[in-house]
Each structure stands twice: as structure tokens, then as C-alpha cells.
Write a structure and sequence with these properties.
The chain is α/β, with parallel strands linked by helices. 40% of the residues lie in helices and 19% in strands. The chain has 39 helices and 44 strands. A seven-stranded parallel sheet has the order 3-4-2-13-14-1-15, with helices on both faces. Helix 19 packs antiparallel against helix 21, helix 36 packs parallel to helix 39 and helix 38 packs across helix 39. The longest helix is centred in the middle third of the chain and has 29 residues. It is globular and about 105 Å long. It starts with a helix and ends with a helix.
Length: 1167
């Protein structure tokens, strides 16, 4: 049995279940949160679907989370509106919208069982007619006939966005006969290939690589928007709005309507269309119109629902009045449906309530009264728990104690046994009536159900532990738009290895004496342009500088850039020297070698309540390996904010303590010291490890005592600020130093650290990412571990971009307070911050508000922050100083005023301050209402709104940040040099310098041959129209090395863009020829009159003998001769009466054979 079956044995409950389908109105009294959910869940023995209506958004989320624990995720659907009517019009969060559509689909499909949870504003939303909605769910099967143009129009009508390359849900793209589409509840998009009007094949593809993965027979497509307008709806709406326009005398209102009508005539959706939607639909459809007949509705507390309806309607009326004042509305508009009468009359309905009063004149067919109490809190007092359990047992109760995971169950079992609490069954699959048992489950709270003698106690009551709430996860695809920030857009700055910095103008096809080729054009000073063949694209790199500022463009051929490059080169060589010297010194040193992991270490790692990410596991392995070797470790651990670096550090610390060594944790601020201390103390609690902290918050006497203990070895882990580096801190046996954000310590402290690093293992943590390119070039010198994946139970931050709006701020703060959380309010003007605080106090008198800024004294600043951490304020108004590393898991709402003024990296880091726990977090980016955004800031806000997924910041903001990071590692003096040639080239020069100093001078592996074969070979626009995809394909052609790569690319092109024309076939073929000839050091291949000449570089003479050339020629079908010109070999092919493909075939065989000869020689040489 499970808990639902157990509760369902109640006779009252059974008779209620039997009456569920009858058109009755029932009343159930006396149930509290969790039992309510269990009772509702028990109804699914006899029914298919039910709807639960609650008052507020938070209530709905709470109950939904209980249902997920009881029924499983796929049976719970949420259809939620914002509690504030304005919010429904101002911004839409994509995740909420997808969840709503998913819920409507669930209602339209007869065979699906489950519960729909909604709130007051959810049932008031105006929806399209259910007929229209369900007619927009359609199947596509292989072999079916359908007109592509019509299909494309339909998709746009039901809300899909047309793009050039599909990466996210709700997008589609059309290339020739290929339609890519990303359905909203799928994790991967579909690729549908047409032959004429017939569907020829359907495949699932991977949005990252754009390659197909597997075939499917059919797909189901459904609407991506809840604004579905048919042609007749448009006509109806247009008529009504035109009437309004004629009758109105107000010019401003008239021109506003004209703007909306303009969009309607093009069948486009105006951003404010939702407010006028009542003019378009033939009647006011709501969620009730979607319910199948006789669907039971549960009302969780009618009283609260009625209050919320009244409040919502008042807010809506105020909103309409406000819009009338602004000349943006007419009194005929209906923003939300009036559903109160429908609600009162609806049957079958069950009302859940705590008291009978407040239900007014509603008549009920039955009333069921239950006796049930919430579970008391034990606050970790096992003696009290023992007494209670004994008492329940004597009265023959079924006792259930719940842990949230098997791991926690073992821990709890151990604790119960220590106190002599013996239970009959441990970790069974079913519940045994009248017995006591310990089970794994996910209910949020316990209860005592007197009628059936059931008592349920959860971990949260025993330990006062917050239980992780379940939330229905949406499939949000994490396809990164910025896989590679070197993607070139028109107008970007680029660096050419010879000519320097210019502006990229795009790809164009140029015809020279009848032959087409693709060229990339770059503009330099005074409008000079150069065009280079696309196959030479590796000469270019994107220009990236440290703070995104625009560089000075070079002049063609004035030699300046070469001088600059020279300067940087000498500079880089000095750095390489220093780095190598440092590394060499370290590798000579002897350090302590830690022993391998033992069972203590395993127990400690088992105690981690979350699932580790792969990156975490990999980093931990790398760190342990370093600790077990006899050289002092110096490792840098890089990871985004909140990606679990601390856990990795804790495991290293435990390893050190386990070998009787001491650990010092060094942090930049006092507040962080306190936080780390709390975290470490909690994590090491059940292991005999002594953790202490050294900071200003302790009295002199306490500090002295800690230092004494430290000296005697009675403290295992000490956490503190740079105070730990003072002379009076003496360790008895220091083994490991963990440094958090090293770049924030001063020069003097860094020197002290440098000395310490020679003797002990050091692990440095940083959230400022280090650019990949730099990472690669420093591989031989500095040990790095990178964590790029977010932990599993973190939710994306819901990001809204909107005009500053007091009612929304007020509502969001109250909503956050209602769920026991706190909010940040970011205001970046120190001189008027206090005025802002008093404005907010007037706006939200219920909240207590504190503020901090950088000009306060350090003491006051830290005290305020600590008060906020301890929950004394609900809202903290702050300048950007929170950008740096304070961890407050309870703050899950963030407002940023004038967000359009902030840089991307700042916005990203600030947004990383919320959403650090397992609750959904909200970020509101606000700009001044009277101000139109500049294009740059609009792009910036769009970007941040777009990357709600965690860790995607690793990709963009990373540009700005990572260059800061580069400066941190290499020293500040470098940023000028980095800017002068751009980051990419700087990294390349550094890499070359290091290799040269280490004596691994880079032997060239291949040449870069120039091919002039006078064959039409390019990517025509009819085949690939999108510039970015063109460049991507050219890069792949350039990277070809063998026949396997060639075949792979052929498949990819056919898969993504369909069958290709001859000019593309030639382009691939020439690419392969170039790949072979480059590897045998050919300089030039030229076709003149009846001859093709292949010229080699001088190095070829060392590789090949004359007979090697003859052997390679014998493999071809062409006549040829070998000549020598100025000491360089050349091969001349006779191509009279030969077709292009025969010439390429011969060159390919020649190149391939020569390459095989070269490889054989290398093998002989090495063996």
C-alpha cells in the first residue's frame, strides 16, 4: 500500500469518491495542507481529470509540488496567471506560457489522466475557443501530402517564429525542401524533408551540431501561443476597433488605434493586442470551456478565492482607469473574464475549507468532517520524538517516518537507533498498516489523521530541515546560441594577420573571368577594402578587447600593425619566461603526499545530499591526484557562481584533515568568512572535525583562544580573511590552503602567499572565468579545473524586462515575502539611495528595508549584510557591490533599476545572485518609462532575457569577464597589449612563445596552398542563404584532413540543406585536394592553357625523392612531367581534352599517394 491507499480506507472518503461524477456540491472540513493533497489525489481511482482552483500563485505552486510527490510529474499540470493583472500584459515569461499551453493540450486530450492546478487569475484569462485550439493540434506523417507554403503560414499563425537556424523551442526554419521545427515539449527539434508536396522523411536532430540523430514516423505539432486568431476573428476585431476610432474625439487615442490597426491589416500581433482581445474572440472563453463534461472541480478555500477575486477585479478596474487616462484604452474593453458566477454555479464541485463560516448562501449536498492535525515540530529533540512514537504505538496507530532519500534514510535510521527508537520496518516498498516504519518519500509536511489512526512524520519536522520542493520541470533546451563567440557578424572588427584591424563586411560571390568564388571583404581606413578567398579565412580572427571598446582601424600597408605585433611578441616572451621559471621551481619542490581515499573520505562524500555534476567529479579527481603526488599542488578551480566549487574544496579539505593536516580557508571579506564558516560547520558536523573562524566579529579574547588552539593543533580547519596571513598566526601542521577569489587580495598578501605556495598544497577558487584560448595556451604551466555544468536542482531565473512600475515592484516583493523569501533592489546612485529607500518604504509599508553602498564604513556595511543574511530585512537596496560574492540563498527576487545602463557581464553576475536555492527565482530588469532604449542597451537586455538557462552566461558575459580574467592571471600591465592586437591573436602569440621556450618549437605540419583551377566552386545563396552558416561550412571544409572528413561533410550538407548543386560538389572536392596537398607542402597549384602546374615548397626536398613523385604520378590517369625551377620541384600535368572532374580526380590521387609515402617515412623514422 502507499499513503493514498491507506487514507482511502476511510468510509467518509469512499462515499465522497463515489459521488465525484454526480452533479453535486460537496463540502470537506478539517483538512490541512498535505492531507488535502492526499485526499484529492485519492480521487484518481475513480476519475480521469480534475481541476484544483486556489487563490494565489504561491498556493498553487505549493500544492502542485505535493501532487508531484504523490502522483508523479507527468500527471500534474499548472495553468497559472500572475496575481497582479498588470503583469499579464507587461511581460510574459516563456516558461509559464509553455506550461499553460501544455495544460490546455492536456485538457483537450481525452485519454490523459491527471490534475490541473490553477489560480484565480488563471480562470479569468481570456482564451481562444476550444474548437480552434484543438484544431491547431495536428499530425504530420511520412508519406502525407501538404503544401509547404501553407504549412509555413500556419506555423506562424499558431505562434512559431521563423529563424535562419533552429535552436530553441517555438522556432522553425525553411531551407528549400527542408523544414526544421522545435516543438515546445520536445527536447530536440524535428527535421522534415519534403519531396514536392509529400513528406519524404522526418528526423530528430541535435540543435548544437545541427546533425540528424534518428528517424521517426510522425510528429505532433501544437500551438506555441495562446493568442490564436482565425481570419474571421481578425475581421471582427478590425471592425470593432475601426468603430472605436470613428467614435473617439481624442487624437492621441486615435493614432494609437491606427498603429494597432496597421498591424492587424498585416495579420501581425501588436504587443498590446492582449488588452483588445475581447474584441476579436466571438465570446469570452475561459478555462471552464476547456473542461470535459462532469470534470470535478476542487476549490481550496472558497473564502480565500472570493477575497482574491475581489482584489483582482479591483486591480483590473484601476488598471483600466489608468489606461483610460493615458489614452490607451476605451471603456468597452474587457481585460479579464468575469468567472465568479460560473464558479458559484459549477458542479460537480468539492469545497475544501477549515471552517463552515464564510461560505455564505452556498447549498451543499453533503458535508464531510475529518479530524486531522498538522504534525508538531520536534526541532531535533529525539527524546520527545521517542515519547510521541511510543504513545502512537500504544494506541495502535500506523506510524510512518519519512526521509527524502535513501541516503538521508540511513542517516535518520542511525539517529533513531542512537535514541533507542526501534521501528518495525526499514525502507520497505509498501506501507504496513498498524506498524511503524521508516520510508523514502517526498511529502513536504507530516500530519496526524485521527479518523484512520495514521501518523506521518517527515524529516522537516524532526530536524527543522527545509525539504527540497518538487517543481514540474519544463524541457528547456540548452542549445547555446553562442557556441563560439568568434562567429562573425557584419560590422564586427576583425584582425588580419598581415593587415591588422579592420571591419568585416560579409561574404560575397565574385565572378572573375567566368569563374565564381566566394570572398570575404574587410574595410580598412579611408574606405580601402580587401577581399580574401574564403578558404583563407584562418588569416582572420575576431577582435575582442577587454572592455568591449571599439579599436582603431589600421591603414592598409603602412606597416604600423607589424610593429605593434612585434612589440607584443617581445612582451609575451618575457611573460613566458616568468611563467616557465615559476613552474620549473615548483616542480623541483618536495611536498607532502596524501594517502589514497579511505572509508572516512567515502562517508564524507556520501553525506553530500545532492547529485554531483560530471564536472564536479572530474575536478575532485584532478585535485586528489595532485594531493596524492609528492609535489605541492597549485590548482585553479574555475566555475560559475553557485556551481558547487565549495563542495569540491570541502572534499579536498577533508582529505587533508583525514591525514592529520590543518587547512586554512582564505576569503576576501568578513561577511564571506562568516558564511563559509557556517557552511563548513554544517557540512563537517557529523564528522569529528573542528572548524573555527578568525574575523573582526570575534572579541580579542576569542581570537586569542582560537590562535592558541590553532598552534596546538586542536583546530582542523580555520576560515578567515587576510588576517590569517598575519605574523601571529601559527599553525601546528598546515597542509592545504584554499583561496577564494585570489585576485581580490592586495600585492603584499600575494607575496606572502607566494612563499606559502612553495611548501603546502594550494587550491584557488574563482568565478571570474578564464578564456578558453588562454586556458589552452597555459595548460603546460598552470593546473586548471573547470566546472561548467549547473547543479541539477537549480531552476532557470525567470527574467522579465519592463518599464519601472511601482505596482509590479510592490506585488513581487509581497509575493516573495509570502513564501518566506527576501529581495534585492539594485539602485546604482549612492547620493539618492536613501531617498529611494524611503520611496520603497511608502510603497511597501509591510516590508522592512535596509540598504548598503560602497561609501559606507566597512563595519556598517558588513553588519547590514549580516542582518540581511539573518533575515532581519525583507528587502536590501544596494549598489552593484553585491556583484561580488555574497551568497544569500533566501534572496530569490532581484530588481535592477535602469538596467539599460549596465554592462552585460555586470547584469549577468548580478543575476547570478538570485536563484541559488531550489526555488524559482525572478529577476526584473527595469528601465525608465519615458525613455526609449538605445539599440545597444535593447540588445543587451534581450540577450540577458534570452539566456535564462544557468551556465549560459559562461558563454557571453564571459567575453567581457574572461578578458578581465586574463588580466588577473597575467597581471594588469597586459591589458594594453591585449587590446592592441585583440585577444585571439594575443593568445596565439603567447602559446607560440611558451612552446618555443620549452624547446617544443612548433614544426609546421602543413603548408597553405593556393589553388587557381578556374573551376566554379562556391556556396550559392539558393543553397545556403544565411551568412553565418556559410562561414561555418567553409570552416569545416578548411578543417578537412582525410576522405573520412570529406564523407562526413557530404552527409552533413545533405542532411541540413538537402541535395547540393555541382558547384558545391566541386567545392568539397577541391577542399579535399587542398587538404592532401597542404600536408605534402605544396605552395601553388595553377591552371594555364592546357597545363596544371603543382609547385612545392623548399621543405619538400627533404621529404621526397624523385622516385616518390613518379610513384605518386603513376597512380593518376594523366600524362605529366617533373621539372625543377630555381631549385624547387614542380609537377606539370597535361590536361588536354580533360574534364574538370578528371583533373580533380588525378590531383586527389596524386596528393593522397604522396601523403601515404610521407606517413610511411615518418613511421620508419620514428621506429
Amino acid at each position: 500500500m502507499n499513503v493514498i491507499d491507506l487514507v482511502s480506507q476511510n468510509s467518509n472518503l469512499l462515499s465522497w469518491q463515489q459521488g465525484l461524477q454526480k452533479n453535486n456540491r460537496e463540502l470537506i472540513l478539517g483538512l490541512s495542507a498535505t492531507t488535502k493533497a492526499i485526499v484529492m489525489a485519492s480521487a484518481f481511482d475513480s476519475i480521469e481529470k480534475a481541476v484544483l482552483i486556489t487563490s494565489s500563485y504561491n498556493e498553487a505552486e505549493r500544492l502542485a509540488s505535493d501532487f508531484i510527490a504523490l502522483l508523479g510529474e507527468d500527471k500534474v499540470h499548472t495553468f497559472l496567471g500572475d496575481d497582479n493583472p498588470l503583469a499579464e500584459f507587461v511581460f510574459a515569461s516563456q516558461e509559464r506560457q509553455f506550461a499553460r499551453l501544455e495544460a490546455l493540450n492536456f485538457l483537450c486530450q481525452e485519454d490523459r489522466q491527471g490534475i490541473l492546478v490553477t489560480n484565480v487569475s488563471g480562470i479569468k484569462l481570456l482564451l481562444p475557443s476550444p474548437k480552434v485550439f484543438s484544431s491547431n493540434i495536428f499530425q504530420l506523417k511520412v508519406g502525407q501530402e501538404i503544401d509547404l507554403t501553407t504549412l509555413s503560414e500556419t506555423l506562424q499563425k499558431i505562434g512559431y517564429q521563423k529563424v535562419s537556424q533552429v535552436l530553441q523551442q517555438g522556432e522553425f526554419s525553411l531551407r528549400g525542401d527542408i523544414l526544421d521545427i522545435f516543438e515546445i515539449d520536445q527536447l530536440q527539434p524535428y527535421r522534415i524533408e519534403f519531396f514536392g508536396d509529400e513528406i519524404d522523411g522526418i528526423r530528430i536532430f541535435d540543435p548544437e551540431s545541427q546533425r540528424s540523430v534518428e528517424n521517426v514516423e510522425e510528429v505532433q505539432l501544437k500551438a506555441v501561443s495562446d493568442l490564436l486568431l482565425q481570419e474571421e476573428d481578425f475581421i471582427r476585431g478590425q471592425k470593432q476597433i475601426e468603430q472605436l476610432q470613428e467614435q473617439s474625439a481624442n487624437e492621441e487615442f486615435k493614432s494609437y488605434l491606427a498603429e494597432i490597426l496597421g498591424d492587424i491589416s498585416q495579420r501581425k500581433l501588436h504587443p498590446d493586442l492582449r488588452k483588445f482581445i475581447s474584441f476579436f474572440y466571438e465570446k469570452q472563453y475561459t478555462l471552464f470551456d476547456y473542461l470535459p463534461k462532469h470534470t470535478p472541480v476542487f476549490l481550496d478555500d472558497y473564502q480565500k478565492i472570493a477575497d482574491q477575486i475581489a482584489r483582482f477585479e479591483l486591480d483590473t478596474a484601476n488598471l483600466l482607469t489608468e489606461d483610460l487616462h493615458k489614452n490607451r484604452a476605451s471603456s468597452r474593453q474587457v481585460y479579464f473574464a468575469d468567472t465568479s458566477t460560473t464558479l458559484r454555479k459549477y458542479t460537480p464541485a468539492t469545497y475544501f475549507s477549515n471552517f463552515q463560516k464564510g461560505l455564505g448562501n452556498l447549498k451543499f449536498d453533503h458535508l464531510y468532517q475529518f479530524n486531522q492535525y498538522p504534525m508538531q515540530e520536534f526541532f531535533g529533540q529525539f527524546d520527545l520524538l521517542k515519547e510521541e512514537i511510543e504513545r502512537y504505538r500504544k494506541s495502535n496507530y500506523t506510524v510512518i517516518v519519512q526521509a527524502t532519500s535513501h541516503h538521508n534514510l540511513q542517516q535518520l535510521h542511525k539517529n533513531l537507533e542512537e535514541y533507542g527508537i526501534r521501528l518495525d520496518y526499514i525502507d520497505g516498498d509498501t506501507i504496513i498498516p498498524q506498524a511503524s516504519q521508516l520510508v523514502v518519500g517526498e511529502l513536504a509536511h507530516g500530519f496526524q489523521f485521527v479518523d484512520e489512526k495514521i501518523v506521518y512524520i517527515t524529516e522537516s519536522e524532526i530536524y527543522q530541515k527545509k525539504i527540497k520542493r518538487k517543481i514540474r520541470r519544463q524541457n528547456i533546451s540548452n542549445a547555446e546560441r553562442l557556441k563560439n563567440y568568434n562567429e562573425l557578424e557584419k560590422g564586427d572588427y576583425v584582425v588580419h594577420q598581415v593587415h591588422g584591424i579592420g571591419q568585416y563586411l560579409g561574404i560575397e560571390t565574385i565572378e572573375i573571368s567566368g569563374v565564381h568564388r566566394d570572398y570575404v571583404s574587410i574595410q580598412y581606413q579611408n574606405g580601402d577594402r580587401i577581399s580574401i578567398p574564403v578558404d583563407q579565412i584562418q588569416m582572420l580572427s575576431k577582435y575582442v578587447a577587454s572592455d568591449g571598446k571599439a579599436p582603431k582601424i589600421n591603414k592598409l600597408n603602412d606597416g604600423r600593425f607589424q610593429k605593434t605585433k612585434q612589440k607584443v611578441q617581445t612582451q609575451v616572451e618575457d611573460i613566458a619566461d616568468d611563467l616557465i621559471k615559476l613552474y620549473a621551481e615548483r616542480s623541483q619542490l618536495e611536498g607532502f603526499a596524501y594517502s589514497k581515499d579511505d572509508e572516512n573520505q567515502e562517508a564524507f562524500e556520501q553525506d553530500f545530499p545532492y547529485i554531483e555534476t560530471d564536472d564536479q567529479l572530474r575536478s575532485i579527481e584532478e585535485i586528489k591526484k595532485d594531493m596524492e603526488s609528492n609535489r605541492p599542488m597549485d590548482r585553479l578551480l574555475v566555475g560559475d557562481v553557485g556551481f558547487g566549487k565549495t563542495e569540491v574544496a570541502m572534499r579536498a579539505a577533508f582529505k587533508a584533515v583525514n591525514d592529520h593536516k590543518q587547512v586554512a580557508v582564505l576569503v576576501p571579506t568578513t561577511v564571506l568568512a562568516q558564511q563559509h564558516y557556517a557552511n563548513f560547520k554544517e557540512r563537517f558536523e557529523s564528522f569529528a572535525v573542528e572548524v573555527a573562524v578568525l574575523s573582526r566579529f570575534q572579541s580579542k579574547a576569542e581570537q586569542k583562544e582560537t590562535l592558541e588552539k590553532l598552534k596546538k593543533g586542536r583546530v582542523d580547519i580555520i576560515i578567515g580573511t587576510h588576517r590569517l596571513l598575519s605574523k601571529d598566526v601559527v599553525f601546528s601542521d598546515l597542509g592545504l590552503i584554499v583561496i577564494d577569489e585570489e585576485q581580490r587580495f592586495g600585492v603584499k598578501h600575494k607575496e606572502t602567499l607566494k612563499e606559502l605556495k612553495k611548501k603546502v598544497d594550494v587550491l584557488t577558487l574563482t568565478a571570474t572565468p578564464i578564456p578558453r584560448t588562454l586556458h589552452m595556451s597555459m595548460l603546460g604551466i598552470r593546473d586548471l579545473s573547470v566546472i561548467e555544468t549547473p547543479p541539477t536542482n537549480r531552476y532557470p531565473v525567470q527574467t522579465f524586462v519592463l518599464e519601472t512600475n511601482p505596482t509590479i515592484i510592490r506585488d513581487a516583493v509581497l509575493r516573495e515575502m509570502d513564501r518566506g523569501g527576501q529581495a534585492y533592489y539594485l539602485y546604482n546612485k549612492v547620493d539618492t539611495i536613501e531617498q529611494k529607500v524611503s520611496e520603497l518604504k511608502e510603497l511597501i509599508p509591510e516590508a522592512s528595508i535596509g540598504f548598503v553602498h560602497g561609501q559606507m564604513s566597512e563595519v556598517r556595511l558588513e553588519n547590514t549584510l549580516l542582518d540581511f543574511i539573518n533575515g532581519e530585512y525583507d528587502v536590501l537596496v544596494t549598489t552593484t557591490i553585491i556583484e561580488t560574492g555574497v551568497d544569500i540563498p533566501n534572496a530569490n527576487t532581484l530588481f535592477i533599476e535602469n538596467a539599460d545602463h549596465m554592462g552585460l557581464s555586470t547584469l549577468y553576475q548580478l543575476r547570478g545572485r538570485v536563484g541559488r536555492s531550489n526555488r524559482i527565482a525572478y529577476a526584473y530588469l527595469m528601465y525608465r518609462p519615458d525613455k526609449s532604449l538605445t539599440e545597444v542597451s535593447e540588445k543587451r537586455l534581450e540577450a540577458i532575457k534570452g539566456f535564462t538557462e544557468l551556465g549560459s552566461g559562461f558563454k557571453i558575459a564571459m567575453r567581457d569577464l574572461s578578458i578581465r580574467g586574463a588580466g588577473n592571471i597575467l597581471g594588469a600591465s597586459q591589458s594594453g597589449f591585449i587590446d592592441s592586437v585583440g585577444f585571439e591573436m594575443y593568445s596565439q602569440l603567447l602559446e607560440e612563445a611558451i612552446a618555443k621556450k620549452q624547446g617544443q618549437e612548433h614544426r609546421r605540419q602543413k603548408s597553405n596552398a593556393e589553388l587557381n583551377l578556374q573551376i566554379d566552386a562556391y556556396l550559392p545563396n539558393e543553397y545556403i542563404s544565411d551568412q553565418r552558416q556559410k562561414i561555418e561550412i567553409y570552416k569545416q571544409i578548411r578543417e578537412m584532413n582525410s576522405a573520412t572528413d570529406y564523407e562526413y561533410l557530404q552527409d552533413e550538407l545533405i542532411d541540413r540543406f538537402g541535395e547540393y548543386p555541382d558547384v558545391v560538389a566541386y567545392l568539397l572536392e577541391i577542399g579535399l585536394v587542398k587538404a592532401y596537398l597542404d600536408q605534402v607542402f605544396v605552395r601553388l597549384i595553377e591552371r594555364k592553357q592546357q597545363k596544371v602546374t603543382v609547385k612545392f615548397e623548399p621543405i619538400a626536398k627533404q621529404l621526397f625523392l624523385t622516385q616518390d613523385y613518379f610513384k605518386a604520378l603513376s597512380m593518376t590517369q594523366l600524362k605529366a612531367q617533373i621539372a625543377e625551377e630555381k631549385g624547387l620541384i614542380e609537377v606539370i600535368f597535361d590536361i588536354r581534352n580533360k574534364k574538370d572532374f578528371e583533373i580533380l580526380e588525378a590531383l586527389k590521387q596524386f596528393g593522397q599517394t604522396l601523403l601515404e609515402i610521407k606517413q610511411e617515412k615518418e613511421e620508419d623514422y620514428s621506429s
